[in-house]
Amino acid sequence: MATSEADGVRALLLAAGTGSRLRPLTDDWPKPLMPIRSRPLLEYWLETLRSIGIRDVLVNVHHHAEQMTRFLDRPCYREWVRTAHEAYPLGTAGTLSANRDFFRGRTTLLVHADNLCQCDLGAFMAFHRHQRPAACPVTMMTFDSPTPETCGIVETNPAGVVIGFHEKVADPPGNRANGAVYMLEPEVLDWLAEHPAVWDFSTGVLPNFVGKIATWHNSGTHRDIGTPDMLALAQQDLLPDLPRVEYDDWSEWFRDHPIHQLVADLTTTCEPTR
């Protein structure tokens, strides 16, 4: 169901990564299209955005760009999803900067779309619109990580505003992690315009907004599928019940693709722990 919180929001789904930790699977197949319970990961993100009424979406592509473009250039997406092809990776902040005109003056939803996330995205957006502290142009989604030493841990004050980051440290002060899903006000894009050399959002942009980043906690599934064991574990996750896209030639081709068996084999060769 579309929500009024989506009015005027444009989304950037970051999907250009090489998925190096998933090799050899990603030697021939893009990480954002890895099957999760037989559906491409990116499809979960796009159908979630569709369900809440976001109709202006940009997806950047680089690794296996032809396969990514073939997935996106279908009747179910081509009217409301644009593709930004990057001949070389621009970085997470660089992609925002390169497409500044698309997002100019808008609230932007920024998503690392190679993560699996089950959350109430409408509630996340409503929090940003109506409940975040007024001085915060950024709202960050957080989650509780079972392995906090392997990810970016955020430290917040009693109001839930970020006061520090601890990136992959041996003894982090808690397990509340950066979920790499953000709502951004135009102030952030304006800052990027003044700092064109910044290419990474997490390390180059966020530290400059410490004290001005609100947090919204996701208690649902939030998983980096970037390793074979995590991809195998994702096949067991409870996922959103989203409508299936209209069956087309790509769907038929994907249904019979060997990637499904390769991923299924992971469940017997990996021994993931939650």
Description:
It is built from eleven helices and 13 strands. By secondary structure, it is an alpha/beta fold. The protein has a domain at 4-113 and 122-139 and 188-200 and 227-269: Spore Coat Polysaccharide Biosynthesis Protein SpsA, Chain A (Alpha-Beta Complex). Helix 9 crosses helix 11 (259-269).
Low-confidence stretches: none
Q: Kindly, what is the distance between the CA atoms of the first and last residues, rounded to a whole number of angstroms?
A: 32 Å
Shape: globular
Rg, alpha carbons: 18 Å
**Overall CATH class of the domain at 4-113 and 122-139 and 188-200 and 227-269:** Alpha Beta
Number of helices: 11
SSE order? EHEEHEHEHHEEHEEEEHHEEHHH
